[in-house]
Amino acid sequence: MDDLDTSDALFPAVNSREWLDVILRHRCKVTKLRPFQLDLGMEVVRGKDVWCVIATGMGKTVLLQAGAIAADARGERGICLIIVPTKVLVEQQVCSMVSL
Known about the structure:
Number of strands: 0
Number of domains: 1
């Protein structure tokens, strides 16, 4: 996974909250996650469906990508279904996912 060394014995256990925090911050290139991103991201990693209504610009994209990023970090192939109301949002999400 990029240049992140996950083989270190001190690296957080796979699927733990700390692990998700590290991989999401690294892959999404953010310094800190908002609490809802990590809380709901953990639900996604556990295989749960989530419903999130948050204002524009608050970081939903990180949450949307959490499952796919986690699957990739585990060496798995993940599927992410995103339903958005406009073509512009679809294009934004595609660009964001491709840049990962």
